[in-house]
Write a structure and sequence with these properties.
The protein is mostly beta strands. It has one domain: Methylamine Dehydrogenase, Chain H (7 Propeller), CATH 2.130.10.10. The chain is 0% helix and 53% strand. The protein has no helices and 30 strands. A 6-stranded antiparallel beta sheet has the order 2-1-27-26-25-24, with no helix packed on it. Strands 3-30-29-28 form a 4-stranded antiparallel beta sheet, with no helix packed on it. It has a 4-stranded antiparallel beta sheet with strand order 4-5-6-7, with no helix packed on it. Strand 17 and strand 18 form a beta hairpin. It is globular.
């Protein structure tokens, strides 16, 4: 089973305008969930969307995605798209100048400091994967992909950068060159799904969650180099989990987030899936709902802010708050006939605030999508 994942082929940040704050409501209760509001919508070029965020500090953050001049259309000649990146420097978001001639989209941004920011993406034709490095943004690597794409990255220092692709490519940058490597102990093909870096620089990689051999690999650095430790999580995390992700805020606290679908009377019924790493082991978490999950960040109070994946409603991925062992919907006001779909989340270091990025679009991603940045807190 594969859930639909909208790889946005559209985004930009020039000509950005501030939008009015939109209060969020707890579904079914009318109670206010304070803090979530739209801070910016992006209307130039006309068709655009955001996929990824990285927050270095309260006054330093990056976002990425892609843009195109017209909506996607079926056929052998798709409309060209190009990657874009935006920077928040404490007061407003602005467009970064990327190298000319690039095509495709930025799907991952990761940073270890304000001076060590990396962006990873893919070509719209599926012919190569791309690494860009901040500092008068430049192309740091281009890998033939044959339809493959980067699912996550770990930027630990200027001389220790990792990039992971869905089809199992592992690339390591040692400060001077990229080297192809692998994760020992994973079933072949590994099919990597998601990457997270914890507060101590530990790298967590979720693998095989949609192929029947779900595992989590943890990279640990030692005095003589680094080692991988692989644990199976099949029993705690069903293998029909679509596009799952991993989120590890600390070495002793990590979450697997995903979802699945089953057929009930000929109708697809979606459900969320959660597993939690605590006390040195993975534990299945009972989760109820009619939605699959996509990604998560901590809310600073023991809970999670979570985005859903696409489901049968056609409504773009939206926000949930996992608190007290249950999910509470965060309903953002619509802009006319368009919904605020949220694809990426980033917690802001040293605060309980969170950035969100995505798109304004109609049901099923129809209509003229526009990039949107949201924020919880100040």
């Amino acid at each position: 089973m594969v859930l639909r994942r909208w790889h946005v082929m559209v985004l930009a940040v020039c000509g950005a305008t501030l939008a009015s704050a939109i209060p969020a409501q707890a579904a079914g209760t009318g109670a206010s969930v304070p803090g979530w509001h739209v801070v910016m919508t992006i209307s130039h070029p006309k068709y655009n969307s955001l996929e990824t965020l990285a927050a270095i500090s309260p006054k330093d953050a990056w976002m990425g995605g892609c843009a195109q001049k017209a909506p996607s259309r079926p056929g052998p000649s798709p409309i060209p798209t190009w990657p874009i990146a935006g920077h928040f420097a404490g007061h407003r978001w602005s467009l970064a100048k990327l190298p000319a001639g690039l095509h495709g989209c930025i799907s991952v941004i990761s940073a270890s400091s304000a001076w060590n920011v990396w962006a990873f993406g893919y070509d719209a034709t599926g012919s190569y994967a791309l690494a860009l490095r901040h500092g008068r943004w430049s192309v740091a690597a281009r890998w033939p992909s044959a339809g493959d794409y980067i699912v996550g990255a770990a930027v630990l220092s200027a001389a220790n950068v990792w990039a992971f692709s869905y089809l199992g490519r592992v690339e390591h940058f040692d400060g001077s060159a990229w080297h192809r490597t692998s994760i020992p102990g994973l079933s072949a093909p590994p099919n990597l799904n998601s990457v997270s870096v914890d507060s101590r620089g530990g790298v967590w990689v979720l693998a095989g969650a949609s192929t029947g051999s779900a595992s989590v690999a943890r990279l640990r650095h030692t005095a003589s180099g680094y080692t991988w430790q692989v644990t199976s999580v099949v029993s705690q995390f069903p293998v029909d989990s679509g596009y799952p992700s991993i989120y590890a805020p600390t070495p002793s606290d990590a979450w697997l987030i995903g979802g699945g679908q089953r057929q009930v009377h000929g109708r697809a019924v979606y459900f969320p899936v959660l597993a939690h790493w605590a006390d040195g082991a993975w534990h299945a978490v009972q989760a109820r709902g009619d939605f699959p999950l996509r990604t998560a960040v901590a809310d600073g109070h023991g809970g999670l802010w979570v985005t859903t994946d696409w489901d049968s409603t056609g409504i773009p991925p939206h926000l949930l708050h996992y608190t007290g062992g249950r999910f509470v919907s965060v309903a953002l006001a619509r802009h006319g006939a368009r919904y605020a779909g949220v694809y990426g989340l980033a917690d802001i270091k040293g605060t309980t605030s969170v950035w969100g990025a995505g798109t304004l679009s109609g049901l099923g991603s129809l209509g003229s999508p526009a990039g949107v940045v949201l924020k919880f807190g100040r």
